[in-house]
Fold these 2 entries.
Entry 1:
Amino acid sequence: MADTIPLSFPVFDGKENFYLQKALSSGLLATNGEFIGLFESNLSMRMKSHQAVVLNSGTSALHLALVLLGVSPGDEVICQSFTFCASANPIVYLGAKPVFVDSESDTWNISPELLEDAILSRLALGRKPKAIVVVHLFGMPAKMMEINAISEKYEIPVLEDAAEALGSTYHGQPCGTLGSIGIFSFNGNKIISTGGGGALISDDTQTISKAKYLSTQAREELPYYQHLEIGYNYRMNNLAAGIGIAQLERLDDFVCKRRQINQRYRAHLEEFPGIAFQPEQAGSSSNFWLSTILIDENLTGISNKELRKVLDEEGIETRFLWKPLHLQPIYRDAPFYGGNVAEALFSKGLCLPSSTSLNPEDQERIVHIIENALSKAS
Ligand SMILES: *Cc1c(COP(=O)(O)O)cnc(C)c1O
Protein backbone atom coordinates (compact mmCIF):
# COMPACT_ATOMS: atom_id res chain seq x y z
CA MET A 1 0.00 0.00 0.00
CA ALA A 2 1.43 3.34 -1.02
CA ASP A 3 1.70 6.18 1.46
CA THR A 4 -1.46 8.08 2.27
CA ILE A 5 -1.81 11.49 0.69
CA PRO A 6 -3.33 14.21 2.91
CA LEU A 7 -5.70 16.95 1.74
CA SER A 8 -3.57 19.89 2.85
CA PHE A 9 -0.49 19.47 4.95
CA PRO A 10 1.85 22.21 6.23
CA VAL A 11 5.52 22.44 5.26
CA PHE A 12 8.13 23.67 7.73
CA ASP A 13 11.24 23.77 5.60
CA GLY A 14 12.32 27.35 6.32
CA LYS A 15 13.75 29.02 9.43
CA GLU A 16 11.03 27.76 11.81
CA ASN A 17 13.56 26.00 14.06
CA PHE A 18 15.82 29.02 14.19
CA TYR A 19 13.01 31.32 15.39
CA LEU A 20 11.62 28.71 17.79
CA GLN A 21 15.01 28.24 19.43
CA LYS A 22 15.43 31.99 19.76
CA ALA A 23 12.01 32.32 21.34
CA LEU A 24 12.71 29.47 23.76
CA SER A 25 16.07 30.81 24.85
CA SER A 26 14.62 34.30 25.33
CA GLY A 27 12.29 32.77 27.92
CA LEU A 28 9.44 34.84 26.51
CA LEU A 29 6.90 32.43 25.15
CA ALA A 30 3.70 34.32 25.83
CA THR A 31 2.37 37.55 24.38
CA ASN A 32 5.36 39.68 25.38
CA GLY A 33 8.02 38.26 23.05
CA GLU A 34 9.82 40.08 20.23
CA PHE A 35 8.45 37.95 17.37
CA ILE A 36 4.87 39.12 17.76
CA GLY A 37 5.65 42.65 16.64
CA LEU A 38 8.04 41.41 13.98
CA PHE A 39 5.48 39.01 12.50
CA GLU A 40 2.99 41.91 12.45
CA SER A 41 5.34 44.25 10.62
CA ASN A 42 6.34 41.55 8.11
CA LEU A 43 2.70 40.76 7.45
CA SER A 44 1.86 44.47 7.14
CA MET A 45 4.60 44.92 4.54
CA ARG A 46 2.75 42.53 2.27
CA MET A 47 -0.57 44.32 2.81
CA LYS A 48 -0.02 47.74 1.19
CA SER A 49 -1.02 50.44 3.67
CA HIS A 50 -2.70 48.03 6.06
CA GLN A 51 -1.46 47.12 9.54
CA ALA A 52 -1.80 43.72 11.17
CA VAL A 53 -2.61 42.42 14.65
CA VAL A 54 -1.73 38.76 15.14
CA LEU A 55 -4.11 36.66 17.22
CA ASN A 56 -4.58 33.09 18.38
CA SER A 57 -7.04 32.05 15.67
CA GLY A 58 -8.96 33.18 12.63
CA THR A 59 -12.17 32.72 14.59
CA SER A 60 -11.02 35.13 17.32
CA ALA A 61 -10.00 37.60 14.57
CA LEU A 62 -13.54 37.44 13.17
CA HIS A 63 -15.02 37.87 16.65
CA LEU A 64 -12.85 40.93 17.39
CA ALA A 65 -13.56 42.39 13.95
CA LEU A 66 -17.31 42.22 14.59
CA VAL A 67 -16.81 43.87 18.00
CA LEU A 68 -14.80 46.64 16.32
CA LEU A 69 -17.55 47.12 13.72
CA GLY A 70 -19.95 47.72 16.61
CA VAL A 71 -22.04 44.55 16.30
CA SER A 72 -24.26 44.24 19.38
CA PRO A 73 -26.98 41.92 20.68
CA GLY A 74 -30.02 41.90 18.40
CA ASP A 75 -28.15 43.27 15.36
CA GLU A 76 -28.21 41.49 12.02
CA VAL A 77 -25.07 40.66 10.05
CA ILE A 78 -25.13 39.44 6.45
CA CYS A 79 -22.89 36.46 5.79
CA GLN A 80 -22.00 34.35 2.77
CA SER A 81 -23.74 31.00 3.27
CA PHE A 82 -21.19 28.92 1.39
CA THR A 83 -18.39 28.82 3.97
CA PHE A 84 -17.00 27.22 7.11
CA CYS A 85 -19.08 27.73 10.29
CA ALA A 86 -16.36 30.00 11.78
CA SER A 87 -17.39 32.79 9.38
CA ALA A 88 -20.77 33.05 11.09
CA ASN A 89 -20.41 31.65 14.63
CA PRO A 90 -18.84 34.87 16.05
CA ILE A 91 -22.00 36.74 14.98
CA VAL A 92 -23.88 34.50 17.41
CA TYR A 93 -21.20 34.92 20.13
CA LEU A 94 -22.22 38.59 20.16
CA GLY A 95 -25.93 37.86 20.43
CA ALA A 96 -26.44 39.09 16.87
CA LYS A 97 -28.19 37.22 14.05
CA PRO A 98 -26.71 36.01 10.78
CA VAL A 99 -28.63 36.55 7.54
CA PHE A 100 -27.31 34.21 4.88
CA VAL A 101 -26.86 34.96 1.18
CA ASP A 102 -26.28 32.48 -1.64
CA SER A 103 -23.23 32.31 -3.91
CA GLU A 104 -22.89 33.03 -7.64
CA SER A 105 -21.36 30.49 -9.99
CA ASP A 106 -18.54 32.73 -11.37
CA THR A 107 -16.50 32.67 -8.15
CA TRP A 108 -18.61 30.44 -5.82
CA ASN A 109 -18.65 33.41 -3.42
CA ILE A 110 -21.46 35.74 -2.29
CA SER A 111 -23.65 36.97 -5.16
CA PRO A 112 -23.62 40.80 -5.34
CA GLU A 113 -27.17 40.83 -6.74
CA LEU A 114 -28.54 38.66 -3.95
CA LEU A 115 -26.57 40.71 -1.42
CA GLU A 116 -28.39 43.85 -2.54
CA ASP A 117 -31.75 42.01 -2.50
CA ALA A 118 -31.04 40.90 1.06
CA ILE A 119 -30.10 44.42 2.18
CA LEU A 120 -33.24 45.92 0.61
CA SER A 121 -35.39 43.25 2.20
CA ARG A 122 -33.88 43.78 5.67
CA LEU A 123 -34.18 47.59 5.28
CA ALA A 124 -37.86 47.16 4.41
CA LEU A 125 -38.25 45.28 7.71
CA GLY A 126 -36.55 48.17 9.50
CA ARG A 127 -33.43 46.14 10.28
CA LYS A 128 -30.33 47.62 8.75
CA PRO A 129 -27.55 45.00 8.71
CA LYS A 130 -24.51 46.02 10.74
CA ALA A 131 -21.87 44.34 8.52
CA ILE A 132 -21.36 42.07 5.51
CA VAL A 133 -19.10 39.01 5.91
CA VAL A 134 -17.57 38.11 2.54
CA VAL A 135 -15.45 34.96 2.11
CA HIS A 136 -12.82 34.17 -0.53
CA LEU A 137 -13.60 30.47 -0.70
CA PHE A 138 -10.68 28.08 -1.15
CA GLY A 139 -8.60 31.20 -1.87
CA MET A 140 -10.71 32.49 -4.78
CA PRO A 141 -11.39 36.25 -4.59
CA ALA A 142 -15.04 37.28 -4.35
CA LYS A 143 -16.44 40.03 -6.66
CA MET A 144 -15.16 42.80 -4.41
CA MET A 145 -15.76 45.73 -6.79
CA GLU A 146 -19.47 44.99 -6.97
CA ILE A 147 -19.65 44.13 -3.27
CA ASN A 148 -17.82 47.30 -2.20
CA ALA A 149 -20.12 49.43 -4.40
CA ILE A 150 -23.11 47.99 -2.51
CA SER A 151 -21.31 48.44 0.81
CA GLU A 152 -20.77 52.15 0.03
CA LYS A 153 -24.28 52.69 -1.33
CA TYR A 154 -25.93 51.39 1.85
CA GLU A 155 -23.09 52.38 4.22
CA ILE A 156 -22.60 48.88 5.60
CA PRO A 157 -18.96 47.85 6.21
CA VAL A 158 -17.46 44.71 4.68
CA LEU A 159 -15.61 42.20 6.86
CA GLU A 160 -13.39 40.16 4.59
CA ASP A 161 -12.94 36.59 5.76
CA ALA A 162 -9.66 35.91 3.94
CA ALA A 163 -8.88 32.94 6.21
CA GLU A 164 -8.25 30.80 3.13
CA ALA A 165 -6.90 33.55 0.87
CA LEU A 166 -3.51 34.69 2.19
CA GLY A 167 -1.49 35.38 -0.96
CA SER A 168 -4.51 35.75 -3.26
CA THR A 169 -4.91 39.03 -5.14
CA TYR A 170 -7.76 40.96 -6.73
CA HIS A 171 -6.82 43.48 -9.43
CA GLY A 172 -3.35 43.59 -7.92
CA GLN A 173 -4.53 44.18 -4.35
CA PRO A 174 -3.96 41.55 -1.65
CA CYS A 175 -7.10 39.80 -0.40
CA GLY A 176 -7.69 40.95 3.16
CA THR A 177 -7.12 44.63 2.24
CA LEU A 178 -10.30 45.03 0.20
CA GLY A 179 -12.90 45.62 2.92
CA SER A 180 -13.11 47.63 6.16
CA ILE A 181 -11.40 44.86 8.15
CA GLY A 182 -9.78 41.67 6.87
CA ILE A 183 -8.86 38.49 8.71
CA PHE A 184 -6.53 35.53 8.07
CA SER A 185 -6.17 32.10 9.66
CA PHE A 186 -2.90 30.25 10.24
CA ASN A 187 -4.50 27.04 11.46
CA GLY A 188 -3.04 23.59 10.82
CA ASN A 189 -4.04 23.08 7.20
CA LYS A 190 -4.15 26.66 5.89
CA ILE A 191 -1.56 27.87 3.36
CA ILE A 192 0.75 28.94 6.18
CA SER A 193 0.43 27.49 9.67
CA THR A 194 1.50 28.65 13.12
CA GLY A 195 -0.13 25.65 14.78
CA GLY A 196 -3.09 27.83 15.57
CA GLY A 197 -3.26 31.50 14.77
CA GLY A 198 -4.88 34.32 12.91
CA ALA A 199 -4.59 38.00 12.08
CA LEU A 200 -6.80 41.04 11.79
CA ILE A 201 -5.80 43.74 9.30
CA SER A 202 -7.00 47.26 8.68
CA ASP A 203 -5.74 50.58 7.31
CA ASP A 204 -7.27 52.40 10.26
CA THR A 205 -4.76 53.01 13.07
CA GLN A 206 -7.46 53.32 15.71
CA THR A 207 -8.99 49.97 14.74
CA ILE A 208 -5.57 48.36 15.03
CA SER A 209 -4.77 49.76 18.45
CA LYS A 210 -8.24 48.91 19.72
CA ALA A 211 -7.79 45.35 18.44
CA LYS A 212 -4.50 45.02 20.31
CA TYR A 213 -6.08 46.40 23.47
CA LEU A 214 -9.17 44.14 23.33
CA SER A 215 -7.09 41.06 22.50
CA THR A 216 -5.03 41.44 25.71
CA GLN A 217 -7.91 41.64 28.22
CA ALA A 218 -8.48 45.38 27.69
CA ARG A 219 -5.86 46.31 30.22
CA GLU A 220 -5.35 50.00 30.95
CA GLU A 221 -1.81 51.39 31.01
CA LEU A 222 -1.55 51.65 34.74
CA PRO A 223 0.79 50.07 37.32
CA TYR A 224 -2.10 47.85 38.47
CA TYR A 225 -4.72 45.91 36.52
CA GLN A 226 -7.58 48.22 35.68
CA HIS A 227 -10.30 47.44 33.14
CA LEU A 228 -12.85 49.80 31.63
CA GLU A 229 -14.10 47.27 29.09
CA ILE A 230 -14.53 43.53 28.75
CA GLY A 231 -11.57 42.21 26.77
CA TYR A 232 -10.42 38.87 25.42
CA ASN A 233 -7.38 36.63 25.68
CA TYR A 234 -6.89 36.49 21.92
CA ARG A 235 -3.27 37.55 21.33
CA MET A 236 -0.86 35.28 19.46
CA ASN A 237 1.98 33.80 21.52
CA ASN A 238 5.67 34.32 20.74
CA LEU A 239 6.33 30.71 19.67
CA ALA A 240 3.52 30.81 17.12
CA ALA A 241 4.73 34.23 15.91
CA GLY A 242 8.25 32.84 15.40
CA ILE A 243 6.86 30.05 13.23
CA GLY A 244 4.70 32.60 11.44
CA ILE A 245 7.71 34.72 10.47
CA ALA A 246 9.43 31.69 8.93
CA GLN A 247 6.25 30.55 7.18
CA LEU A 248 5.57 34.00 5.75
CA GLU A 249 9.07 34.07 4.25
CA ARG A 250 8.00 31.01 2.25
CA LEU A 251 4.52 32.20 1.25
CA ASP A 252 5.28 33.22 -2.34
CA ASP A 253 6.78 29.82 -3.00
CA PHE A 254 3.80 28.07 -1.38
CA VAL A 255 1.35 30.01 -3.55
CA CYS A 256 3.39 29.18 -6.63
CA LYS A 257 3.35 25.45 -5.76
CA ARG A 258 -0.38 25.38 -5.07
CA ARG A 259 -1.10 27.18 -8.33
CA GLN A 260 1.02 24.60 -10.17
CA ILE A 261 -0.92 21.79 -8.50
CA ASN A 262 -4.15 23.36 -9.69
CA GLN A 263 -2.82 23.74 -13.23
CA ARG A 264 -1.81 20.07 -13.34
CA TYR A 265 -5.26 18.93 -12.21
CA ARG A 266 -6.82 21.15 -14.86
CA ALA A 267 -4.48 19.94 -17.60
CA HIS A 268 -5.52 16.33 -16.98
CA LEU A 269 -9.12 16.49 -15.86
CA GLU A 270 -10.71 19.51 -17.51
CA GLU A 271 -11.21 17.60 -20.78
CA PHE A 272 -13.60 15.12 -19.16
CA PRO A 273 -17.24 16.00 -19.85
CA GLY A 274 -18.95 16.70 -16.55
CA ILE A 275 -15.81 17.83 -14.71
CA ALA A 276 -15.47 21.54 -13.92
CA PHE A 277 -13.08 23.67 -11.87
CA GLN A 278 -13.59 26.76 -9.70
CA PRO A 279 -13.35 29.57 -12.27
CA GLU A 280 -10.73 32.32 -11.88
CA GLN A 281 -12.07 35.66 -13.13
CA ALA A 282 -9.96 38.17 -15.07
CA GLY A 283 -8.05 40.31 -12.56
CA SER A 284 -8.26 37.65 -9.84
CA SER A 285 -5.44 35.40 -8.72
CA SER A 286 -6.27 32.62 -6.28
CA ASN A 287 -3.66 31.10 -4.00
CA PHE A 288 -5.51 27.83 -4.76
CA TRP A 289 -5.31 26.85 -1.10
CA LEU A 290 -7.46 23.90 -2.14
CA SER A 291 -7.99 22.61 -5.67
CA THR A 292 -11.62 21.68 -6.13
CA ILE A 293 -13.64 19.97 -8.84
CA LEU A 294 -17.33 19.70 -9.61
CA ILE A 295 -18.58 16.33 -10.82
CA ASP A 296 -21.81 16.31 -12.81
CA GLU A 297 -22.99 12.75 -12.25
CA ASN A 298 -25.35 12.92 -15.26
CA LEU A 299 -22.33 13.32 -17.54
CA THR A 300 -19.63 11.40 -15.67
CA GLY A 301 -21.73 8.47 -14.45
CA ILE A 302 -20.02 8.76 -11.07
CA SER A 303 -20.91 11.01 -8.13
CA ASN A 304 -18.58 12.98 -5.90
CA LYS A 305 -19.42 10.54 -3.09
CA GLU A 306 -18.41 7.53 -5.20
CA LEU A 307 -15.22 9.18 -6.40
CA ARG A 308 -14.34 10.12 -2.84
CA LYS A 309 -14.74 6.45 -1.84
CA VAL A 310 -12.50 5.27 -4.68
CA LEU A 311 -9.78 7.72 -3.63
CA ASP A 312 -10.22 6.93 0.06
CA GLU A 313 -9.58 3.24 -0.63
CA GLU A 314 -6.26 4.28 -2.16
CA GLY A 315 -5.31 6.28 0.92
CA ILE A 316 -6.01 9.60 -0.77
CA GLU A 317 -7.74 12.15 1.40
CA THR A 318 -10.41 14.35 -0.17
CA ARG A 319 -13.16 16.46 1.34
CA PHE A 320 -16.59 17.66 0.27
CA LEU A 321 -16.97 21.41 -0.20
CA TRP A 322 -18.32 23.39 2.78
CA LYS A 323 -21.92 22.54 3.50
CA PRO A 324 -23.81 25.86 3.11
CA LEU A 325 -24.59 27.38 6.48
CA HIS A 326 -28.28 27.96 5.72
CA LEU A 327 -28.55 24.14 5.49
CA GLN A 328 -26.79 23.55 8.81
CA PRO A 329 -28.99 22.42 11.71
CA ILE A 330 -27.53 25.20 13.93
CA TYR A 331 -28.72 27.85 11.44
CA ARG A 332 -32.06 26.29 10.51
CA ASP A 333 -33.98 29.40 11.55
CA ALA A 334 -31.72 32.07 10.03
CA PRO A 335 -33.07 34.08 7.07
CA PHE A 336 -31.60 33.08 3.68
CA TYR A 337 -31.61 34.93 0.36
CA GLY A 338 -30.96 33.01 -2.82
CA GLY A 339 -31.64 29.73 -4.54
CA ASN A 340 -29.67 26.54 -4.86
CA VAL A 341 -26.28 27.69 -6.21
CA ALA A 342 -24.26 26.89 -3.06
CA GLU A 343 -26.35 23.79 -2.46
CA ALA A 344 -25.65 22.48 -6.00
CA LEU A 345 -21.92 23.21 -5.65
CA PHE A 346 -21.91 21.34 -2.35
CA SER A 347 -23.69 18.34 -3.87
CA LYS A 348 -21.23 18.06 -6.79
CA GLY A 349 -17.93 19.24 -5.37
CA LEU A 350 -14.81 17.58 -4.08
CA CYS A 351 -11.60 19.12 -2.68
CA LEU A 352 -8.54 17.29 -3.98
CA PRO A 353 -5.16 16.91 -2.26
CA SER A 354 -3.45 20.30 -2.51
CA SER A 355 -0.53 20.26 -0.07
CA THR A 356 2.41 22.47 -0.90
CA SER A 357 4.51 19.31 -0.53
CA LEU A 358 2.45 17.23 -2.98
CA ASN A 359 5.02 15.97 -5.46
CA PRO A 360 4.32 15.46 -9.20
CA GLU A 361 4.53 11.64 -8.90
CA ASP A 362 1.90 11.48 -6.17
CA GLN A 363 -0.29 13.92 -8.07
CA GLU A 364 0.02 11.75 -11.18
CA ARG A 365 -1.13 8.79 -9.13
CA ILE A 366 -4.18 10.74 -7.94
CA VAL A 367 -4.97 11.89 -11.48
CA HIS A 368 -4.66 8.33 -12.84
CA ILE A 369 -7.07 6.97 -10.27
CA ILE A 370 -9.59 9.72 -11.10
CA GLU A 371 -9.15 9.23 -14.86
CA ASN A 372 -9.68 5.48 -14.43
CA ALA A 373 -12.78 5.96 -12.33
CA LEU A 374 -14.19 8.40 -14.89
CA SER A 375 -13.43 6.15 -17.88
CA LYS A 376 -14.95 3.12 -16.17
CA ALA A 377 -18.09 5.02 -15.26
CA SER A 378 -18.80 6.65 -18.61
C1 LIG B 1 -10.21 28.29 8.78
C2 LIG B 1 -11.30 29.25 8.58
C3 LIG B 1 -11.72 30.13 9.59
C4 LIG B 1 -11.29 30.01 11.02
O1 LIG B 1 -9.96 30.07 11.28
P1 LIG B 1 -9.35 29.34 12.59
O2 LIG B 1 -7.96 29.84 12.61
O3 LIG B 1 -9.47 27.87 12.34
O4 LIG B 1 -10.15 29.77 13.77
C5 LIG B 1 -12.66 31.09 9.28
N1 LIG B 1 -13.19 31.18 8.07
C6 LIG B 1 -12.85 30.34 7.07
C7 LIG B 1 -13.47 30.54 5.74
C8 LIG B 1 -11.91 29.34 7.29
O5 LIG B 1 -11.60 28.49 6.31
Entry 2:
Amino acid sequence: MSAYADLEGRLEQVRAEIRRAGGTDAVRIVAVTKTHPVAAVHAGVSAGLVEFAENYADELVPKAEQVLDQGLDVRWHYIGAIQRRRLRHICRYVSVIETVSREVELESLSDLGYEGELLVQVAPSGHPTGRNGADAEQVSVLVARGWELGLNVVGLMGMALPGSLQSTADYFAQVRRLGEDLHLREYSMGMSGDYQVGVAQGATMVRLGSALFGVRGDARATKEQ
Ligand SMILES: *Cc1c(COP(=O)(O)O)cnc(C)c1O
Protein backbone atom coordinates (compact mmCIF):
# COMPACT_ATOMS: atom_id res chain seq x y z
CA MET A 1 0.00 0.00 0.00
CA SER A 2 1.26 3.49 -0.82
CA ALA A 3 2.77 5.55 1.96
CA TYR A 4 0.35 8.28 0.97
CA ALA A 5 -2.82 6.20 0.93
CA ASP A 6 -4.57 8.54 3.35
CA LEU A 7 -3.87 11.66 1.28
CA GLU A 8 -7.40 11.92 -0.10
CA GLY A 9 -8.86 11.83 3.39
CA ARG A 10 -6.38 14.43 4.62
CA LEU A 11 -7.21 16.65 1.68
CA GLU A 12 -10.92 16.38 2.46
CA GLN A 13 -10.17 17.44 6.04
CA VAL A 14 -8.07 20.38 4.86
CA ARG A 15 -10.85 21.55 2.54
CA ALA A 16 -13.34 21.32 5.39
CA GLU A 17 -11.03 23.35 7.64
CA ILE A 18 -10.61 25.97 4.92
CA ARG A 19 -14.39 26.33 4.61
CA ARG A 20 -14.73 26.51 8.38
CA ALA A 21 -12.17 29.35 8.39
CA GLY A 22 -14.29 31.27 5.89
CA GLY A 23 -12.47 30.26 2.72
CA THR A 24 -13.94 28.86 -0.48
CA ASP A 25 -12.83 26.05 -2.75
CA ALA A 26 -10.98 28.74 -4.72
CA VAL A 27 -8.24 28.77 -2.06
CA ARG A 28 -5.30 27.07 -3.78
CA ILE A 29 -3.72 24.17 -1.96
CA VAL A 30 0.00 24.07 -2.70
CA ALA A 31 1.42 20.69 -1.69
CA VAL A 32 4.89 20.94 -0.18
CA THR A 33 6.77 17.76 -1.11
CA LYS A 34 10.17 18.61 0.38
CA THR A 35 11.94 15.53 1.77
CA HIS A 36 9.26 13.33 0.19
CA PRO A 37 9.92 11.19 -2.87
CA VAL A 38 8.25 11.64 -6.24
CA ALA A 39 5.64 9.13 -5.07
CA ALA A 40 4.18 12.01 -3.03
CA VAL A 41 3.67 13.99 -6.23
CA HIS A 42 1.97 10.99 -7.86
CA ALA A 43 -0.33 10.60 -4.88
CA GLY A 44 -1.08 14.32 -4.98
CA VAL A 45 -1.93 14.29 -8.67
CA SER A 46 -4.19 11.27 -8.16
CA ALA A 47 -5.98 13.17 -5.41
CA GLY A 48 -6.53 16.10 -7.77
CA LEU A 49 -3.71 18.44 -6.71
CA VAL A 50 -1.90 20.42 -9.40
CA GLU A 51 0.38 22.76 -7.47
CA PHE A 52 3.47 21.51 -5.66
CA ALA A 53 6.32 23.26 -3.87
CA GLU A 54 9.93 22.70 -2.94
CA ASN A 55 12.31 24.84 -0.93
CA TYR A 56 15.71 23.59 -2.10
CA ALA A 57 16.88 23.86 -5.70
CA ASP A 58 18.85 20.63 -5.30
CA GLU A 59 15.68 18.80 -4.40
CA LEU A 60 13.39 20.60 -6.83
CA VAL A 61 15.40 19.99 -10.00
CA PRO A 62 15.68 16.17 -9.93
CA LYS A 63 12.10 15.83 -8.72
CA ALA A 64 10.75 18.13 -11.40
CA GLU A 65 12.80 16.24 -14.01
CA GLN A 66 11.33 12.91 -12.93
CA VAL A 67 7.84 14.33 -12.92
CA LEU A 68 8.37 15.64 -16.46
CA ASP A 69 9.77 12.30 -17.63
CA GLN A 70 6.71 10.60 -16.24
CA GLY A 71 4.44 12.96 -18.13
CA LEU A 72 2.72 14.45 -15.09
CA ASP A 73 1.33 17.94 -15.53
CA VAL A 74 2.06 19.92 -12.37
CA ARG A 75 2.84 23.52 -11.51
CA TRP A 76 5.88 23.93 -9.26
CA HIS A 77 6.28 26.71 -6.72
CA TYR A 78 9.64 27.63 -5.26
CA ILE A 79 9.33 28.52 -1.57
CA GLY A 80 12.92 28.49 -0.32
CA ALA A 81 15.54 31.16 0.13
CA ILE A 82 16.75 32.31 -3.26
CA GLN A 83 20.35 31.47 -4.03
CA ARG A 84 21.15 33.49 -7.08
CA ARG A 85 23.57 31.00 -8.58
CA ARG A 86 20.79 28.39 -8.49
CA LEU A 87 18.16 30.69 -9.92
CA ARG A 88 18.72 29.67 -13.54
CA HIS A 89 17.83 26.08 -12.70
CA ILE A 90 14.87 27.04 -10.58
CA CYS A 91 13.45 29.26 -13.31
CA ARG A 92 13.47 26.41 -15.79
CA TYR A 93 10.97 24.39 -13.78
CA VAL A 94 8.78 26.64 -11.69
CA SER A 95 5.60 28.60 -12.43
CA VAL A 96 5.63 30.58 -9.20
CA ILE A 97 8.48 31.90 -7.04
CA GLU A 98 7.10 32.92 -3.66
CA THR A 99 10.19 34.13 -1.86
CA VAL A 100 11.51 37.25 -3.54
CA SER A 101 12.89 39.57 -0.90
CA ARG A 102 15.63 41.65 -2.51
CA GLU A 103 16.02 43.90 -5.49
CA VAL A 104 19.05 41.97 -6.82
CA GLU A 105 16.85 38.88 -7.04
CA LEU A 106 14.37 40.75 -9.20
CA GLU A 107 17.20 41.92 -11.41
CA SER A 108 18.53 38.38 -11.80
CA LEU A 109 15.06 37.09 -12.62
CA SER A 110 14.70 39.79 -15.23
CA ASP A 111 18.12 38.95 -16.73
CA LEU A 112 17.06 35.31 -16.94
CA GLY A 113 13.86 36.26 -18.74
CA TYR A 114 11.68 34.60 -16.11
CA GLU A 115 8.03 34.91 -17.10
CA GLY A 116 6.32 33.04 -14.26
CA GLU A 117 4.52 34.53 -11.31
CA LEU A 118 6.33 36.15 -8.42
CA LEU A 119 5.37 36.82 -4.84
CA VAL A 120 7.33 39.06 -2.50
CA GLN A 121 7.89 37.46 0.90
CA VAL A 122 7.10 39.80 3.77
CA ALA A 123 9.09 39.24 6.95
CA PRO A 124 7.18 39.37 10.22
CA SER A 125 8.34 42.24 12.39
CA GLY A 126 10.90 41.04 14.88
CA HIS A 127 12.29 38.55 12.41
CA PRO A 128 16.07 38.50 12.36
CA THR A 129 17.12 40.31 9.22
CA GLY A 130 18.49 38.13 6.51
CA ARG A 131 17.00 35.79 4.02
CA ASN A 132 13.46 35.31 5.25
CA GLY A 133 11.60 38.10 3.59
CA ALA A 134 11.59 41.81 2.99
CA ASP A 135 10.77 44.31 5.69
CA ALA A 136 7.22 45.60 5.39
CA GLU A 137 8.48 49.09 4.51
CA GLN A 138 10.36 47.74 1.50
CA VAL A 139 7.51 45.78 -0.03
CA SER A 140 6.04 48.55 -2.17
CA VAL A 141 9.49 49.46 -3.51
CA LEU A 142 10.21 45.86 -4.43
CA VAL A 143 6.85 45.34 -6.11
CA ALA A 144 7.25 48.55 -8.10
CA ARG A 145 10.77 47.56 -9.13
CA GLY A 146 9.52 44.17 -10.28
CA TRP A 147 6.84 45.76 -12.44
CA GLU A 148 9.33 48.25 -13.80
CA LEU A 149 11.47 45.31 -14.92
CA GLY A 150 8.43 43.80 -16.63
CA LEU A 151 8.16 40.94 -14.13
CA ASN A 152 4.87 39.32 -13.22
CA VAL A 153 4.63 40.25 -9.53
CA VAL A 154 1.16 39.10 -8.46
CA GLY A 155 1.15 38.88 -4.69
CA LEU A 156 2.74 38.51 -1.29
CA MET A 157 3.83 35.55 0.79
CA GLY A 158 3.86 35.40 4.56
CA MET A 159 5.50 32.89 6.85
CA ALA A 160 4.75 33.47 10.51
CA LEU A 161 7.20 33.08 13.34
CA PRO A 162 6.19 30.58 15.99
CA GLY A 163 3.97 32.51 18.36
CA SER A 164 0.42 33.08 19.47
CA LEU A 165 -2.52 32.70 17.10
CA GLN A 166 -3.17 36.39 17.64
CA SER A 167 0.31 37.48 16.59
CA THR A 168 0.08 35.21 13.54
CA ALA A 169 -3.33 36.66 12.63
CA ASP A 170 -2.04 40.22 13.07
CA TYR A 171 0.91 39.49 10.81
CA PHE A 172 -1.19 37.87 8.08
CA ALA A 173 -3.64 40.78 8.26
CA GLN A 174 -0.72 43.16 7.78
CA VAL A 175 0.48 41.20 4.73
CA ARG A 176 -3.00 41.32 3.23
CA ARG A 177 -3.31 45.08 3.86
CA LEU A 178 0.09 45.77 2.31
CA GLY A 179 -0.92 43.80 -0.78
CA GLU A 180 -4.31 45.42 -1.11
CA ASP A 181 -2.70 48.85 -1.06
CA LEU A 182 -0.76 47.68 -4.11
CA HIS A 183 -3.79 46.00 -5.72
CA LEU A 184 -2.13 42.58 -5.63
CA ARG A 185 -4.32 39.50 -6.02
CA GLU A 186 -2.46 36.54 -4.49
CA TYR A 187 -1.70 35.91 -0.83
CA SER A 188 0.24 32.81 0.17
CA MET A 189 -0.35 32.67 3.91
CA GLY A 190 -0.37 29.59 6.09
CA MET A 191 1.31 26.22 6.55
CA SER A 192 0.06 23.06 8.24
CA GLY A 193 0.14 24.67 11.69
CA ASP A 194 -1.56 27.96 10.84
CA TYR A 195 -3.38 27.79 7.51
CA GLN A 196 -6.79 28.30 9.11
CA VAL A 197 -5.47 31.61 10.45
CA GLY A 198 -4.13 32.48 7.01
CA VAL A 199 -7.45 31.72 5.32
CA ALA A 200 -9.36 33.77 7.88
CA GLN A 201 -7.09 36.70 7.01
CA GLY A 202 -7.61 36.37 3.28
CA ALA A 203 -5.10 33.80 1.99
CA THR A 204 -5.67 32.81 -1.64
CA MET A 205 -3.20 29.93 -1.29
CA VAL A 206 -1.83 27.81 1.53
CA ARG A 207 1.40 25.78 1.55
CA LEU A 208 0.86 22.42 3.16
CA GLY A 209 3.42 19.72 3.83
CA SER A 210 2.81 17.64 6.93
CA ALA A 211 -0.97 18.16 6.91
CA LEU A 212 -1.03 16.28 3.59
CA PHE A 213 1.94 13.94 3.62
CA GLY A 214 2.55 13.31 7.30
CA VAL A 215 5.49 14.28 9.44
CA ARG A 216 8.83 14.47 7.67
CA GLY A 217 11.60 12.22 8.91
CA ASP A 218 14.47 14.17 7.40
CA ALA A 219 16.46 16.41 9.75
CA ARG A 220 16.64 19.09 7.08
CA ALA A 221 12.93 19.65 7.42
CA THR A 222 13.40 21.32 10.77
CA LYS A 223 16.10 23.66 9.51
CA GLU A 224 14.85 27.15 8.78
CA GLN A 225 14.46 27.76 5.08
C1 LIG B 1 8.17 23.38 4.67
C2 LIG B 1 7.45 24.63 4.32
C3 LIG B 1 6.05 24.67 4.32
C4 LIG B 1 5.17 23.51 4.73
O1 LIG B 1 5.37 23.19 6.07
P1 LIG B 1 4.32 22.24 6.86
O2 LIG B 1 4.40 22.75 8.25
O3 LIG B 1 4.84 20.86 6.71
O4 LIG B 1 3.01 22.43 6.25
C5 LIG B 1 5.44 25.86 3.93
N1 LIG B 1 6.15 26.93 3.57
C6 LIG B 1 7.50 26.91 3.55
C7 LIG B 1 8.22 28.15 3.13
C8 LIG B 1 8.19 25.78 3.93
O5 LIG B 1 9.53 25.77 3.91
